Amino acid sequence: MNFEDLKKFFFRKPKNALEGSEDAAPADKPAKEAAIPEKLVEKCEKCGQIILSDELRDNFGICPKCGHYKKIDARARIALCAEQFAELFSEVEGGNPLDFPGYDEKLAALREKTGEKDGVVCGTAVIGGVRCALFSMDYRFQMGSMGHAVGEKIAQTFEYAAANRLPVVGFILSGGARMQEGIISLMQMAKTSAAVAKHSEAGLLYIAVLTDPTTGGVSASFAFEADIIIAEQGALVGFAGPRVIEQTIRQKLPAGFQRAEFLQQKGFVDRIVGRREMPALLASLLQLHSNAGEGEAETFAPASASSAPAAAQTAAPAAKDAPSAAPASENAPAAQTGAASENGGKEVTA
Ligand SMILES: [Zn+2]
Q1: How far is the CA of 212 from the centre of ligand 1 (A)?
Q2: What CATH number did the domain enclosing 133 receive?
Q3: Distance 62 CA to ligand 1 centre (A)
Q4: DSSP characters over 294-343
Q5: Structural domain tally of the chain?
Q6: Contact call for residues 44 and 22 (beta carbons, < 8 A)
Q7: Cis omega (within 30 of 0) on the bond before 309?
Q8: Cα 163 to averaged position of ligand 1 atoms, centre (Å)
Q9: Domain that holds residue 78
Q10: What's the 43 CA to ligand 1 centre distance in angstroms?
Q11: Which of 68, 90, 186, 222 could bridge 63 with an S-S bond, Cβ 3.0-4.6 Å?
């Protein structure tokens, strides 16, 4: 056992499920980790077997031995489900509004490690030939917790979608509100909810995909405000953690409490779906609703356009209807995300 292992052994604190068992506590880890070449093999968190990283990536992060779902990052999730993606609002960046000690350093380390400014990636996408707005939360960024930047980007995505009459697909993963931003993070619940409501009042479709975990202030706001709520199988979905609830009500909770399947039985979730089946389900739901609507949801043949024209299409309405989407930055992020989507699968092993 080397020194690092010993340190981990003696100084570990008990973790709950939301903190994650993988690289979810990057503040304690040196930022230089990002420079270490990709791992060739990794150990399944559930069955403990050694799997080739390539094999795991090609399998959408699903363990080939036991079927366990490893968390996948925001862009890998987009690459899995969308035929095209053009990023929006990539310029939005959070700060340290309360001067929380150590938070600036933590943000800087996470930005360097993940290459993302904060815990959500937003944009327009084409899924099953239907154009939509999309947001995807990233577990690597403080378990997708919602601070100002995350709330702002998600609210802007809904506003953009309402202005351009697009459905919204949200890949949700969050440990809840970001404690380092205190009341500011809690205000994001109201802000995102208001944006969802405006989008809904415009008669537009919102599909939420709850992934493991969806909890706290996110589950208490936009995660459960969707028209259609899909959950990835086995996902932990709830508000407070099971341990906190047990301590508060002094009762043992039933088996499987807060798992997606339990929530479906209780009517909170419309459909449980496996990761492989997710793209086809989203495609069929979007197609169904685009045909049933007023015909304003545009459909594109998936093969007909590269990501560049898609960016041009999104840039024009952005400049007209949503001044917040800085038009000058439209093309650059699109080019970036084209590359990032191709690399998206790789990040599964990060
Ligand atoms: Zn496994």
Answers
A1: 16
A2: 3.90.226.10
A3: 8
A4: -S-S-B--TTS--HHHHHHHHHHHHHHH-TTS-GGGSHHHHHHHHHHHHH
A5: 1
A6: no
A7: no
A8: 44
A9: 74-349
A10: 8
A11: 68
Q: How far is the CA of 234 from the centre of ligand 1 (A)?
A: 14
In a domain, 68, yes or no: no
In a domain, 310, yes or no: yes
Among residues 87, 193, 81, 188, the alpha carbon closest in space to that of 133 is found at 87
What is the rounded CA–CA span in Å between residue 120 and residue 146?
Answer: 9
Characterize the bridge pairing of strands 130-137 and 271-273: unpaired
Q: Tell how far the Cα of 252 is from the centroid of ligand 1, in angstroms.
A: 28
Answer whether 0.85 is exceeded by the pTM. Answer: no
* pLDDT tens digits for range 296-335: 445 554 444 444 444 444 444 444 444 443 444 444 444 3
Kindly report, residue by residue over 107-150, the tens digit of the pLDDT. Answer: 999 999 999 999 999 999 999 999 999 999 999 999 999 999 99
Distance 205 CA to ligand 1 centre (A): 36
Q: How many angstroms separate the alpha carbon of residue 26 from the centre of ligand 1?
A: 24
Residue 50 is assigned to a structural domain of this protein: no
d(CA 80, CA 273): 14
